[in-house]
Amino acid sequence: MKVYKFGGASVRNAEGVRNLRKIVGGERGLFVVVSAMGKTTNALESLFEALRRRDRTAAAELIDALRRYHAEIVADLWHEPRRIARVEEFFGELTGLAAPAPGEPDDAELLYDTVVSYGELLSTAIVSEYLAFAGVANRWIDMRRALRTVQRHKDAEVDIEASAPLLRAALAEEPAADLFIGQGFIGGAPDGTTATLGREGSDYSAAVVAHILGAESMSVWKDVDGVMNADPKVFPDAVQIPELNYLDTIELAYSGAQIIHPRTIKPLQNKNIPLYVRPFGDKRKPGTVIRGISSPVEVPILILKGGQVLLTIRSRDLSFVLEEKLGAIFALLERYRIRTNLVHNSAVNLSLCVDDTWHIDEAVAALREAGFDVMKSTDMELLTIRGYTEELFLRYAQIGPKVFIRQTTQSTVRVVRKR
Ligand code: ASP
Ligand code: MG
Prior knowledge:
Strand order of the largest sheet: 3-4-2-1-7-9-10-8
Distance between the termini: 45 Å
Bound molecules: aspartic acid, magnesium ion
Structural class: alpha/beta
Low-confidence stretches: none
Shape: globular
Oligomer: single chain
């Protein structure tokens, strides 16, 4: 068995879906994980916000736009408009999702998951139907039943042990089938509700599927030639890296490289499954392979992670932050699901570069409540250079008015700077 994953950009239009068909068409023994088409997840996030505001007009308009977008792709694929039963059903459900009535407990994260999961449900319904139409027999798998998550919403982890029998049972329902189409990014929580795995989580879904099925390999089909040493949009001389090992990849993903979702590697590493990052446009190109052992990376790697906030935390009684308070601070951040990307400390200050998320202000308030002075600088970014050269160091890591923190080791320099 092999696992292929197609991201939203690869299936953003009919041409993409046709190309997917070309890639999977001749294969046997394949599980295909598909993301939501194009920018659908962003649109669904806007829908979620409209529902939260109880703005029914905006919600109806957003659903309409999504309906038109998907209908256009379908009409292009079939060369005429076509009703697909599952697609109709999902739009019906989406329309039926009302904002919680006043007085009803409103669980924002549950509503979020319920709404945004429809992107993948729609894309896989269309892809599966089109493949069948184009002569590629396949089976649509409902990942809400095949992957069991922990009881958490918006950023749930998959419970692999609980999922294994569920996924296997789903595949065994039709013993002759050997091509499966499943949604990335979604699963089912123990309480029966839908859970999502965090933005860009489809890679993680695919890795979990590969792990459970003991796949020989996993391939992520992308609109780039492979993994680059930097984002070419930000750093013009970016080059492709032919091979990476799992550990370096985790480091890169953690630093913000948009190669793959940071949780993807562990399930693969456990079973030593190689991960190929391959160009969607050309099946013959080698792409990048990620596995246990690889030849060393010869070029510096530059990663810029935006959307950061710098918190500088000091205990009001000036007790040494590090020794006495560290555990309490991190426990509190964990409670508000704040992800820390860089830690810097002095005798009385603890500086944390964290993702700017929904709950950041609540976390800051709670820290203040707990006796800390907290300074919050927004609009920050974190630049990481692995294997830096003197030239790169001089160019990017000089302390100046915009650089708030710099950390240097023998091989890596990290800079927290104002955008
Ligand atoms: N559709 C989801 C997102 O855009 C998951 C994914 O693409 O991996 O975040
Ligand atoms: Mg996506």
